[in-house]
Design a protein that fits this description.
Helix content is about 35%, strand content about 25%. By secondary structure, it is α+β, with helices and mostly antiparallel strands.
């Protein structure tokens, strides 16, 4: 017989820590203003034809906004918001396929670096 399960029950079944308390403290998420700023930068890349898709994820370490430029399993860039209780002093990081590109306490500095890399790709 088929069992009807709500999304919340399914999520808790497959991800028991989702929405609950984490042993290292409360997980950080992107707030509305941060998402707005990230999506504005992402939109400029989509309009220029550089980026095709994105994904948003979170775990105990923090939140991540991944940007995909082509059909690939690996993102071109990832904007990561780390927990404040982490060992690193930086709060935001910009990761590329080769590693960390920028680490800063402000999202604006990370997005400025992302925009400059996008325009450098278009000019060449």
């Amino acid at each position: 017989m088929t069992e009807v399960v709500t999304f919340e029950q399914s999520r808790r079944r497959h991800h028991p820590k989702a929405g609950g308390s984490h042993p290292r403290g409360k997980a950080d998420f992107f707030n509305r203003q941060e998402l707005r700023d990230i999506l504005q930068s992402y939109s400029r890349g989509v309009i220029a034809g550089d980026w095709l898709d994105y994904a948003v994820d979170w775990n105990e370490a923090g939140a991540m906004f991944a940007i995909y430029g082509q059909v690939s399993a690996l993102p071109m860039y990832s904007i990561v918001k780390r927990n404040k209780s982490g060992r690193r002093a930086a709060h935001y990081q910009l990761l590329g396929r080769g590693g960390m590109l920028k680490s800063d306490r402000t999202l604006g500095a990370v997005l400025k670096m992302l925009d400059s890399r996008r325009t450098a790709l278009v000019k060449s």
